[in-house]
Amino acid sequence: MLKLEHVKKTYGDTTILKDINLEIKKGEIVSILGPSGSGKTTLLNLILGLTDIDSGKIIYDGEDITHIPMEERGFNIVFQDYALFPHLNAYKNITYGLRNKPNISTKEEVEELIELLGLKDHLHKRIDQLSGGQKQRVAFARTMVMKPKILLLDEPLSALDGVIKESIKERIKTIAKEYNLTTIIVTHDPEEALTLSDKVLIVNGGSISQYGTPHEIMNAPSNSFVQEFILRQLEIKRNNILTLFHKEGAIKESYTSTNEKAWQVG
Asked: What is the 8-class DSSP label of residue 96?
């Protein structure tokens, strides 16, 4: 279990995070959701150890890791731009971390992960030959072979579209389930957070607005910010989609009717 107790972070006179209290159970997928400048990326960096906290505690499995360096925490991150090595092919990117720690994953475990992520046919391709979804999966694999205690993802779906995005969402769920891996995701997209996660942490102005399951957030928003920022966005998206389908249906109906009349005349 990961716990944050009364965590605070400031930069100069600006408070970025204030009195953050949070518990994440092992194996849960948790999305940190909020607008730009809300503190969500800073929170991810604090957990990773990339940024020091000003006060409070970070506890993992009962151990206070607040002052433990990033490289000793055993948490790994997949960055938004994937940070792959362009001079190495996909397989060498995946196994790069094993150069210094070859005993972390066996060859069989690496192959199993490659199979799980559907990368078997792409291992010898250069990075510039891979699609966005394939690059994302290579970045996942490179992180997973190091067997992280917690997997951190920074806007993992922001550069992906449509079917590819849905495929990657399913891969993330599969990885978390197969490895019982605690997964923490930063996103600005309510739909992404609510359809991918076991729980969603909504932050605004450096504070927690709500922390709960997607069902709880959808059916019992804790305040006006959650109602407007989260649910209103989803409502607008739903209405836009329904409008498109309604127009599509009307066009098809009109086209069918015109063809029937033409057939009758003919």
From this structure: G
Q: How confident is the model at residue 255 (pLDDT cuts 50, 70, 90)?
A: low
d(CA 119, CA 224): 44
Q: Which of these, 214, 182, 181, 178, lies nearest to 198 by C-alpha position?
A: 214
Which value, to the nearest 10 degrees, does the dihedral of the CA atoms of residues 162, 163, 168, 170 take?
Answer: 120
Please give the full DSSP string across 101-169, using - where no structure is assigned. -TTSS-HHHHHHHHHHTT-GGGTTSBGGGS-HHHHHHHHHHHHHTT--SEEEEESTTTT--HHHHHHHH
Cα 82 to chain center, whole Å?
A: 13
What is the pLDDT, as a whole number, of residue 259?
52
Q: What are phi and psi of 213, to 5 degrees?
A: -75, 160
Tokens describing residue 130: 């891979």
